[in-house]
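Forwarding the complex inputs:
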Amino acid sequence: MDGTDVINQALASIIDTELVAKQLEQAFKDEILANASSEQVSDEEVMADVYQRVLLSPAVESLLTQEYELSVQMQDLVDEQEREWQYLTQRQTEELCYAVDQLTEVEVNEISVRHCEERQIFESGWESRLVNVQETQKLHFREWLLGMAEIVETGGQLPIRPEDDFEQVASDPENLDIPSVFRLEESFTIQLGAQMKQSHNLRLISADVLDLCRLPLTSRNDPQRLQMALSLYSSNQSGLVLLVDDRLSAYTGMEKEFLRICRRGAELHFPRADLQLENARNTFSANAFKWRQQISNRRINELESNGGQPKTKTPRLGDMYVSRHSNLAQVHVVFHLVSDDSVRSNEINSRHPVLLGLRHILRTAVVSDITTLTIPLLLVHELSEEMTVPWCLRRAELVFKCVKGFMMETASYGAGVDSRGSGSSPTLQFLLPRDAADEVFHALAAMLPGVFRVSNPLVLRSDAVR
Amino acid sequence: MELTVDCCLGVSTFCAANHPVESCGSNGLPLTPNSVQILGKFQSLSQLEHPNLCAYVEICRIQHERVIVVAEHYSTSLQTLILKKKIFGLDLQIHISRSIIEALRYLHSKNVVHQNFHSKNILISSEGGVKLSAYGIYYMTQSSTLVSFPIGYPKYLAPEVLLLGYDPSKSWLDKSTVCDETLTLYSSKPKSDIWSLGMILLEMDVLSVVVEQSVQPELKEVIESCLQVLPENRPTADQLLKYPLFGSRFNVPAAVFKFPAQPLQPDLLRIHQLMSKLPLSEVYHFWHLVGGDVEAELRKAGILRNKPAIFSLPCLVLEEGESFGQTKDRTTLFDDSVVEISLEALLRRLQHLPSSVFDPLMDDVINDHQTLREAAQLPLVIKEKDIDYQLYRIVMFDKQLRGYPLTRQAIVKEAREDVPPFCRARVWAALLKVDPSYSAMYAAIDKETSHSSDRQIEVDIPRCHQYMDLLASPEGHAKFKRILKAWVNQHPQYVYWQGLDSLTAPFLLLHFNDEALAYACLAAFIPKYLNNFFWKDNSSVIQEYLAKFSHLIAFHDPVLRNHLDCIGFVPDLYAIPWFLTMFAHVFPLHKIFHLWDKLLLGNSSFPLCIGLAVLQQLRESLLESGFNECILLFSDMPEIDIERCLKDSIEIFCSTPQSVTFRQHEPPSVSPKGNRSFWDFSLIGSNSTLKSERCPRISAEDFIELLDLNHKRFARPKMVVVDVRNANKFQNGAVPGSINLPYQTCWTTDGTLIPCEQVEQLERARGKIVCVIGSSCNDLGLKFSEILLDLQWPRVCTLHKGFDVLLKTQILVVPAAVGMC
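Prediction (whole assembly, two chains):
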C-alpha cells in the first residue's frame, strides 16, 4: 500500500479517518513530551525529592535522628507485641495442659476454641494498632520533612534538638563500631570480555541472609544508615535475592521472618512490606496469570497440543516479585525468587527455572541501576544434611558459571564502551549460609578465580615512561 | 565553508525503543540494541555536506538506550523570524524557499527523507544562510521503527503520512522481523516532504500577505503545486527549482538578508578567524578535548532528568522474562529541544595560541613553543588529551595529508613522532601507500556473488570486536561482509582464514564512512605484513614465521627461551593468532590503534619484535610458570602496556641484524639493501631445518656490516667473532679480531668452556653479538652456538654457510696477526 492508495481509500471512506486521528492523537500524547498531559508526579516522587534535599543539607542529622526514633518506636511496639504473644501462648498452653489433665473432652474443645478466638482477637487488635502507628508515623514524618525542607530552603534556624545532650553517647566510638554481619568475606576483581576487558567486583561472603536486612538500631548516627539513605533514591542501590516458596504467604517460612524484620523498622517511604507482597499477589493473579493463559492458548492453537494450561493463580518456580524498602540494614530492593525443594537435588542444570529467574534478576538489576546485588550462591539459605562439601562445590560451580554467562549477556544493556558512562554489571555478592563450614568457604574462594578471570594488575616499572 | 560567528553546537537526545525481552534475531543471537542500530545509520548522515544543511557532527549512546546527537546549530530560526514579525519581502521568501528546496534536492538524491519539517527546524545564520536542521532523525531511526515515538509535526505532515504511519502499534511492522520490503513500502517518500515544504511556504506566505496585502502569484503557484493531495501530482525538488520564480530574475545575493548576531568579543576575533577555517567536526573534537561533555550539557539544561531508579522497578517478573507493574517513565518521552553550546569557551581556551600554530609548515612551530615541545615528550595517552598539542598536530597533519601522495615522506616522518587520533584514518592510508583512485577500484569488485567462505564470514562477523558499537551495528556488519567478500573475490590465490575479520576491524572502524578505503588499506596491509599467510595451505609460511620468532627469542632472551623450551611452551601454542591477525585478535581496538601506529612504520619483520616485547613484558610470570599456567595465561591475553611494548620492540628491532628475521616468505624487499642474492642467503633449507636450529644465522653481508672493520658505523665494536674451526685452519686465515675456540678441544667434561685467555676475552664481550663461525662442511658452528645458548649466553648467532662464505671477501688476515693481539 503506498501513499496514493491510502489517500484514495481515505477519500472513498474505506479508512476510518476519525479513528486514525484518534490513534494519532494518542501516539503523540503517549510518546512526545510537548504533547503529553502535564506531569503527574506521584506523591512518592515528590517526597523522594524533598528527602534528597534535606539529606544533603545541614539538617541531615536531625533527619537521621527522626528516622532512628521512629524505628525505635516501631521496634519497641513490636517487641511488646511479641512479649504479649509469648505470654498469651504460655498462658494458653498452661490452661490447655491443665484442661487435658483435669477436664472432659468437651470442655477441652471449648477451651481450645476460646484460645483460637483469643489469638485472633490478639492478632487483629495488634495488627490494627501497628498499622495505625505506622500510618501515623508516615504522616508525621512527611510533615516533619516538608517543614524541615522549608527551613532548609529559607535558610531558617534549624531546631535545636533537646536530645543533643545525649550526643556523647552516640559518638562513643565503641557504639560506632558495628560488628560486621559477614562471618567471612573475600573480595575479587575480575575481568570479562575477549579483547575489551571490563572489570567487575565480586565478593564471597558467609552470613545469615536476614542479617543483611535486620536493622541494628545501635546508634543515631550509624554511618551505614546515612550511606543507605543517601543511595536510596540514587542510581546505586543494593539488591538482595531472597529465595521464597510459591505461597507468597506472609505466614510461613522465609517470607514470614522477612516481614517480621520489615515490621520492626519504620517504613517511611514505601508501602508496608505486606502490602507490597499483596500487590504482587494481585498483579500475579490478575495480569500475569492472564498473560500466561494467553500464551499457552496461542501455543495450543499453534501446535494443537494440550500443553500445560496454567492452573494455579500462584507464581511458579523461577518467578520473582520485587519489593522496595527504606528500613533494612543493607538492602533497598528485595527480589523474592520462587524456589522449591528441587534445588536441593544434586542434578540441577543451567536451565533450572531458579537460575533463569536469577538471570532475569540480574537483567532487572542492571537496567534499574542496582549496583550491588547479593545472590545466594548455593541457591539455598540454610544447609541441610544432604548438602555435603562436594554438593556445595558442585552447586557453587554451576552458579558461578551461570552468573558469568549472565554478566556477559548484560554487558550489552549498558552504554557502549567507546561512549561515556558505564552500564556494566553490578558488584555481585555471593552469599553462603552462615553455617557453611570454613572449609567450604575457602574451597569456593579458591574456585572463583578459576571460573572468573581475576584481573592481572598492570605493573608499571619505574622505567616504563621515560 | 567558514564557520560564522553565531555557529554553535546543537545537542539533542532521544531514547531508542527497547526490544521485547527474550527476543532474538533470525541467527539466534540476541538482537542488536536499537540505539546501536541508530549509531550505525547515523554515520552516513555525518557525511552529508550541503550549504543549506546543518552538518551532523557526532552521535553517542549512554545508558538506558538513550542516544545524543550533536549537530551544527544557529539560534535564529524561521519560527523566530515569523514570531518577531520580521518583514518578509518577496526576495527573502524566494531566498528561503530556494534554499530549502536545494537542501531537499540534495537529501532526496541521497535517499534521505526529512519528515521532520517545522519552522523551528529551519535555521538562519547571521550571514543569511538558510539551513535545515533535525532532518536526519527519520533516517537514522530507520523510518522511525527504532523508536517508539512518531516523528514529524502533524501540522506539516502530508496526508498519506498521517494515514499510513501513525498507527501507534505499528501493527504493519513486527519490529523483530521487519523486512526491507515492508519497510520501503510503508516508510515515507520524498513526495511527502514536498507537501511539508508547501506547508512551510504557506506559513511564511500567510505572514507576508498580512504585510504586503497581496499574494505573490509566483509563490502561490509553487505552494499550490506542493499541496496536492495525491503525492504523484506534486513536483519533485528538482522540478520545483525549474519554476520561473527561482530563475535568475530573482537571484539576489544572500548578503541582503544578514541578521547580525551577537558580535564576538574583540579579543576572540583573531582565534575565531583561525578556527573558522576548520571543519566543524574538528572543532567539535577540540571542544571535546577541552572537557566538553554533551551529557553534562543536557543535564545542565534540564533535558536529561533521572527519575530515581527505585520507582521504575517492575513489581513482578515471570520465569519467562515478562515483567509487570512498571510504569512508563516520563523522562523517556521524546523532547525535541536542542541545547545550544557556544564555542566561545573553546575559543577562550585557545586564544593564547599563536597564529603560527595554524600554519605549521611555515615555521618550526614545535621548536618555537616550549609547551608544545614539552607536550611531545609526554606519554601517549596524555598527549592525546592535550588540546594545544593535538591542535598543532592535527592542523599540521591536515596540511600534509592534503598534499598526499607527494607529501608521503613528510607524513611518515611526522607519524614516527605520533599519530593524532583524529587524523589516524587518513594517516594510515598514507602510510600504506593507498592509491588515490581506490574508490573506483573497489567499486569494480564483485562483493555480492556467493562464495564458499560466506558461511564462515557470517559466523565470524558477529563475534569480532562487538564491544565497539559501530562494528556491532547492522550497518557495520553489512560493510564488514562486503569488505571481506571483496578481498576474497579479489585474491583467488588466497582463502578466507579466521583472523581476516580481526584484521579488517581496525580499518573498518577508522574508515567506517569510506568502505572503499577500508578495503584498500586491508588489501595493502596483508601483502606487506602477512605475505602468503592466507594461502590455503599456509603451514609452511606460519612455521617459518614461528621458527624465526623462536630464533629472535633465543637471540635476545636466552633465559626465557630456555625456560619455554624446557616446559615445552612453543610459539605454535600461542603466537599464531598474534601474528595471523597482527595482534588485532588479542588486544582491544584502542590498543590496536596505538600498536599499528608504529607497526605500519616498520617492515614485515617488525611484528616479530612486537611479539618478543609482549613476551618480555610478561617475562616474570612466564619464568615462574609451568606449561599449564602459561597456557592459561595466554588463553586470555593479560593486560599489556602498549606504549612500553612498542618502545621495547623498536629497541629489539634496532639491535637485531636484519638477516636474523629474514624469511623466505617475506614480501619482496624494495629497499636497496634488500638484494641479498650475492650472499645466497635465501635458501637455508626446509622449515624443519629452520625449526631444529635453535640459534639464528646471519648473512655474510650483515656480518661484514657488524664487523665494521673500518670503524665507520660504530664507535665501539658491536660484535665478537668466535671461530670454532681447529687451530690449523684458523692459522691459515681468519677474520681479524676473531677468537679461536676449536669446538673439539674447548669443552670441559660437564659442558662448560675450559677457562683460557680466549674464553676470558669472550666473557669480557658478553652482551655484544656473538657470531660463531664454523667450517662450511660441518655444523659444529651451530652446535657451539647452541651450547652457548644453553649457557644462557645472549645474542648468539652463526654465520650462514660458515667460513667459506668469507673467502670471496677481502677481509681475511693471516693467522699470526690474530692470535697475538
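The longest strand of chain B covers residues 8-15.
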